[in-house]
Specification:
- The structure is a homodimer of 378-residue chains.
- The two termini of chain A are 35 Å apart.
- In chain A, the strands form four sheets. In chain A, strands 2-10-9-8-5-3-4 form a seven-stranded mixed sheet, with helices on both faces. A three-stranded antiparallel sheet of chain A has the order 11-14-13, with helices on one face. A two-stranded parallel ribbon of chain A has the order 1-12.
- In chain A, helix 10 packs antiparallel against helix 13.
- Chain A contains 13 helices and 14 strands.
- With 378 residues, chain A is α/β, with parallel strands linked by helices.
- The first copy, chain A, folds into two domains: 126 residues, Alpha-Beta Complex (Aspartate Aminotransferase, domain 1), CATH 3.90.1150; 242 residues, 3-Layer(aba) Sandwich (Aspartate Aminotransferase, domain 2), CATH 3.40.640.10.
- At the A-B interface, helix 1, helix 3, helix 4 and helix 9 of A face helix 1, helix 3, helix 4 and helix 9 of B.
Chain lengths: 378, 378
């Protein structure tokens, strides 16, 4: 007998309502029955994306939705800014290069947020730049970029602003329309509390205008096809039916709670996680720009970071994430997103204390949990 | 209270084992726990695909897997045969055109199978043809093409044979290796008895060789990335975790039954469906090349085909498929594939009799069910 806790930055645990929805007998997608669900899910997505634009539901991971954003907006030879400050920022560059788009890379030190002024400067220096690809929460480092400020510097240029909100949507605030974000990309397995398998993309009128000139070859990810189908409450290809039905349930939950409450729950959990690790004498990887989505913590000297994560998972059933790419073994990441609440955080911190103590790290047992409790008591 | 029966050519009903697997708490995909599942699923897929080649699991619909086949093998300017004899054959042509590949279209009358000699002739006339894109079961018409014979005419040429087995895999025989099929494409929501959301592709050495020269731009569907990841029992992007776990269950079921038994169950159901509709005085749309996957039946004169399908579904809970594209309103399609067995067929035929009678069609009530029972009694 062992209980498992999933505290990774995607997938996040599934609410019972979602599990129940996926357990229903499957229905056919070209029926009025499914159309009713597709319509309600579309409205719910507009609420969570905080947009009046259409949100397209793709059967793909979040990366597929990122590719859809690139190939629908641009053509080979176009220039686009990509903001790199971690593994997922780099993905924008890789996708652009795959399609012959020339990335103007802004290199940001891992653990820091991009300076909106840097983006403004590049846009001014090169008026040919057609798009700015950025990331709201860089999951690999736990950094949040200031999308509102970036929206301000992009909105009056000819470029469109594209935001990877895969790990941040439904966890922290993203006012797509108010902040002048043209394209928001997300996935199902994070704040939306579903299994992976849905890619989501919202597209502004300015972006769709650009899509008319795009010459990137595309078929499966062609958003003009998706738009035409959506006008008839349909999808161009077979949708991931069970996930769309489950999406409808998680969107209902978020609407019932209200976005503000969803965000404040995430804020509180993040604050508690940060307070707890500091109380244990640990340091944050991104002290100045840490997100309320996931907290990256430096592995202390003398401790094997990979063993720490492995022991929590394989011996005690608590799955946190290790470091990715250049951060492998150097950080571990506590996700506080999706269907997670305060007592999950307490359990996670307690397990962290247990394994750190067993590995010989010196600290006052209980101090991490106490610090977290104090935050939740406020 | 109403019981629903799904008799459409995808999605097909879900076995309880699949539903149960999707209801388990979700796990993270970069863990030894998921790797064990991915490995077993990979072996199970090789069994069902009847191949020694790797089978890649994509988070996409079947169309995404079709696109993967095109963009990994070819480059703009290449010439490829596409066999059109229905909506899904036409999709090969559309995907090729989207990537600048020149389709040499073989037009087959809807309801007929392609002549392998026609393919042989085209290949001989133009040695530049690099690939032959065909469909095993054309779901829109219910026709099965003779893949074994097509394999014979393609194998000694420089071209690769690509088969869309989306609706046929796990329903009728497809000996990928023995029949010299280089690339087999499938999806999850048909013979594999899962919800839609997984695209599957097997790739031969000859095809991977061609992939090294391919210049089509690609990122999400890049099978070289998938191959590199699979060597480490991983996927390049977040997989559709819950569907992969469920896939493992359905593959176990198929392995337990044995492929031969799976195929003979489908054969029997198809025979019963054909016998039943003939006994009702109805005619088959594809009398000479009908598949054991789905049976397309001509709507009799004086009957509104769309209303027939709608009434069975909305009044009695039995969902069959109507006609697509040029066959809209002219045929209805009884699927006998996936998690469907003889008494589902009986129920479906009984409902068909009921609604036909209500719509004023003249026949001996019970004669369709009797004919089906006689087939199952044999």
């Amino acid at each position: 007998m062992r209980k498992n806790y999933l505290m990774t930055p995607g997938p996040t645990p599934l609410p019972p309502q979602v599990t129940e929805a996926m357990s229903r007998p499957i229905i056919h997608h070209r029926t009025p029955q499914f159309q009713t669900i597709l319509k309600e899910a579309g409205e719910g997505l507009k609420y969570v994306f905080q947009t009046k634009n259409d949100v397209f539901i793709l059967a793909s991971s979040g990366t597929g939705a990122m590719e859809a954003a690139v190939v629908n907006l641009l053509s080979a030879g176009d220039v686009a800014i990509t903001v790199e400050g971690g593994k997922f920022g780099e993905r924008w560059t890789e996708i652009c290069k795959s399609y012959g788009i020339i990335p103007e890379v802004i290199n940001v030190e891992w653990g820091k947020a991009v300076e909106p002024a840097e983006i403004a400067g590049r846009l001014k220096a090169n008026p040919k730049i057609k798009a700015v690809f950025t990331t709201q929460c860089e999951t690999s480092t736990g950094v949040t970029n200031d999308i509102r400020a970036i929206g301000q510097v992009v909105k009056d240029t000819g470029a469109v602003l594209v935001v990877d909100a895969i790990s941040s949507l439904g966890a922290i605030d993203l006012k797509s329309d108010d902040w002048d974000v043209d394209v928001v990309v997300s996935g199902s397995q994070k704040g939306l509390m579903l299994p992976p398998g849905l890619g989501l993309v919202s597209v502004s009128a300015k972006a769709f205008n650009m899509a008319n000139d795009s010459k990137c070859p595309k078929y499966y990810f062609d958003l003009k096809k998706a738009k035409k189908a959506l006008e008839k409450t349909d999808t161009p290809f077979t949708p991931a039916i069970s996930l769309v039905i489950a999406l409808n349930e998680s969107l209902r939950m978020m609407k019932t709670d209200g976005l503000e409450n969803v965000f404040s729950r995430h804020r509180k959990m993040a604050e508690a996680a940060r307070a707890a690790v500091k109380a244990l004498g640990l340091t944050l990887f991104a002290p100045s720009a840490g997100s309320d989505v996931v907290t990256a913590v430096n592995v202390p000297a003398g401790i094997d970071g990979e063993k720490l994560v492995k022991t929590m998972r394989d011996t005690y059933g608590i799955t946190m994430a290790g470091g990715q790419a250049e951060l492998k073994g150097k950080v571990f990441r506590i996700a506080h997103m999706g269907f997670i609440e305060e007592f999950d955080i307490i359990a996670g911190i307690s397990c962290l204390e247990k394994v750190l103590a067993q590995m010989g790290y010196k600290f006052n047992v209980g101090s991490g949990v106490k610090a977290a409790e104090e935050v939740f008591l406020k």
